[in-house]
Amino acid sequence: MSLTTNLPAVTANAAHFALASLERALGDHFFLCTQNVDSLHEQAGSRRIVHMHGCLMQTRCSRPGCRSKPFNDERLYLKRAEIPTCPQCGALLRPQVCWFGEVPYSMELILEQLRFCTVLLTVGTSGLVEPAASFVRIARMHDARTIYVGPEEPANRTFFDTVVLGKAGEVLPKVVRELTEII
Ligand SMILES: [Zn+2]
To answer: Which of 80, 111, 123, 167 has the most crowded Cβ, counting Cβ within 10 A?
Structure first.
């Protein structure tokens, strides 16, 4: 469900495919947490993935506690009158995305993964926005090796063991190849 705009026609890039290949190499030892609300990681082949900010192509009931489940929905609603209501409780439906001020999805699972991971690979985030900005600090506190890949130094640079500057689509495939060799 999208309330404001049509999504641009975008496709997975080399960074998405690199992460999917890392998952194939690591199997159950791999976990991907993304802030993206698109489905490009899935298109590239990622399966062990959580969208902490939700999925724009899914719709759910707006009433907290309603038992209806989110469902895939690529329709575009331009007017409030066009927005359908929940078949179970009659409340308005809404996109399955995290709006400003809302708690991100799957935080319990993400925090557990951060406590147990041995390598944390962070791609392209600013290091400014919480809670994601604290993920590296948590992983490092639990002795993980921490790597950042992105176009510019993140605000939380001090918590990374290794920083690789560059566009993810250009440098991530090489970083993933090196990681796959040492893991
Ligand atoms: Zn409902």
So the answer is: 123
